[in-house]
Design brief:
The chain is an all-beta fold. Strand 4 and strand 5 form a beta hairpin. It is globular and about 40 Å long. The model has no long low-confidence stretch (mean pLDDT 96).
C-alpha cells in the first residue's frame, strides 16, 4: 500500500533552519505531484509549498516565499522541504501529500505529519 513517511522535524530556534523529508513507497513516484501542508493548533491545515511531478514547477504560500524551498528526488522517491529563517509562527505539524498527475482526486495520499516547533 501507499506510504508517505515524514521526518526531520523537531525543536529549532528562531532564525534557524531545518530540512523535512517525505519518503514515498507503494506508488510510481514520478507520476505524483507533491506538496507540503501545515496545521498549527486551532488553525486549519494550509498549503505551504508544492512541486510538480517532474519537479520543474514549484509554488509557495506567500508567508514562506524566499525562506522555504521544496525539491523532489524521483530517484529516491523523496520530497524535501528546506526551511530557513524560521519564525515562531512556522510552528506546526507538517504533512506531505501526494497527488497523481492525472487522477489527483482518486490517488491522493497523506503522511502522518512531523512536528516543527520554532522557539527559543
Amino acid at each position: 500500500q501507499v506510504q508517505l513517511v515524514e521526518s526531520g522535524g523537531g525543536l529549532v530556534q528562531p532564525g534557524g533552519s531545518v530540512r523535512l523529508s517525505c519518503a514515498a513507497s507503494g506508488l510510481t513516484f514520478v507520476n505524483y505531484a507533491m506538496s507540503w501542508h501545515r496545521q498549527a493548533p486551532g488553525k486549519e491545515r494550509e498549503l505551504v509549498a508544492s512541486i510538480s511531478s517532474a519537479g520543474g514547477i514549484t509554488n509557495y504560500a506567500d508567508s514562506v516565499k524566499g525562506r522555504f524551498t521544496v525539491s523532489k528526488d524521483n530517484a529516491k522517491n523523496t520530497v524535501y522541504l528546506q526551511m530557513n529563517s524560521l519564525k515562531p509562527e512556522d510552528t506546526a505539524v507538517y504533512y506531505c501529500n501526494a497527488r497523481h498527475k492525472y487522477s489527483p482526486q482518486i490517488n491522493n495520499y497523506w503522511g502522518q505529519g512531523t512536528q516543527v516547533t520554532v522557539s527559543s
